């Protein structure tokens, strides 16, 4: 799901540096699938990649929780690793 909203950074700095890395994002969803919060948990050591990963999580749409999942919880925390490589290098 997040691969469809993931975008490698653009612009002069990204073209020159061509950063590569993995970002771990921790985010919280409400039962209806709304994003409550998102933050970088483990940085890629590149602000460009960290920002791109947060943007991907914020752009995504999430389904509501099935009724039997996390019963009694109004929100649930998730963790995801997002890998970035410059276009054309894979």
Your description of this structure?
This protein has 90 residues and is of the alpha+beta class. It has a single domain, classed as TolA/TonB C-terminal domain, CATH 3.30.2420. It has a three-stranded antiparallel beta sheet with strand order 2-1-3, with helices on one face. It contains two helices and three strands. The longest helix is centred in the middle third of the chain and has 13 residues.
How would you describe this structure in keywords?
90 residues, alpha+beta, TolA/TonB C-terminal domain, 3-stranded antiparallel β-sheet, 31% strand
Which helices and strands appear, and what pairs or packs with what?
Layout: H1 12-17, E1 21-30, E2 35-42, H2 47-59, E3 75-84
Antiparallel strand pairs: 1-2, 1-3
Could you provide a short overview of the structure?
The protein has 90 residues and is an alpha+beta fold. It has helices at residues 12-17, 47-59; strands at 21-30, 35-42, 75-84.
The CATH level-2 architecture is identified as 2-Layer Sandwich
Shape: elongated
Detail the poorly predicted runs: none
The helix-and-strand class reads alpha+beta
Q: Note the gap between the termini.
A: 20 Å
Element-level helix/strand string: HEEHE
Average the pLDDT over all residues and give the rounded result.
Answer: 93
- Proportion of residues in β-strands: 25-35%
Strand order of the largest sheet: 2-1-3
Question: What gyration radius follows from the Cα positions, in whole Å?
Answer: 15 Å
The CATH topology comes to: TolA/TonB C-terminal domain
